[in-house]
Amino acid sequence: MKTILILVGKTVNKHFVAGINDYAERISHYMPLEIVTIPELRNTKNLSEEQQKLSEGDLILRQIQPSDTVVLLDEHGKEFRSIEYARWLQQKQQTSRRLVFVIGGPYGFSDAVYSRANEKISLSKMTFSHQMVRLIFTEQLYRACTIIKGEPYHHE
């Protein structure tokens, strides 16, 4: 199974970039991981939030294949403990050819992206910046990989 992480806009904080790259490198020892960054929209001052979501949504949907399992990181999604997430990921590895996670822009997702999604997950009931979510998510993906392999990274 290939895992793809779609991000809207580039990660700007150099510390987050370094952490994301570190975890992406670690994850690659367990599974193929591709990070796709959709460029930020230009001239957004003249666009409403809804117009921005529609434009970003079109760009997201272009990256998705019909057979993909699409999982949105969304505040209304299902929450997991790390071990539960690892079990969920292991099940997806057995049933999906491409597992696509999407971290949207600052206003969330368009209705078309929500309609295409197979599932939504949430990292926390708390709100994090979209930049920070990228780092937290890659760490949790790495943690899940080590749990699946029975490695000592995760402590209960």
Structure, described:
The chain has helices spanning 14-27, 49-61, 82-95, 111-116, 130-148, and strands spanning 2-8, 33-38, 69-79, 98-103, 119-122. The protein is built from five helices and five strands. It is 42% helix and 22% strand. The two termini are 27 Å apart.
Provide a compact summary of the structure:
This protein is of the alpha/beta class and 156 residues long. The chain has helices spanning 14-27, 49-61, 82-95, 111-116, 130-148, and strands at 2-8, 33-38, 69-79, 98-103, 119-122. It has a five-stranded parallel beta sheet.
Helix/strand order, N-terminal first: EHEHEHEHEH
Largest sheet: 5 strands, parallel
The helix fraction, in percent, is: 40-55%
Unreliable runs, pLDDT <50, ≥5 residues?
none
Strand proportion, as a percent range, falls in 15-25%
Shape: globular
What Rg is obtained from the alpha carbons, in whole angstroms? 15 Å
Structural classification? alpha/beta
What average pLDDT do the residues reach? 95
Number of DSSP helical runs: 5
How are strands sequenced across the largest beta sheet? 2-1-4-3-5
Number of strands: 5
Distance between the termini: 27 Å
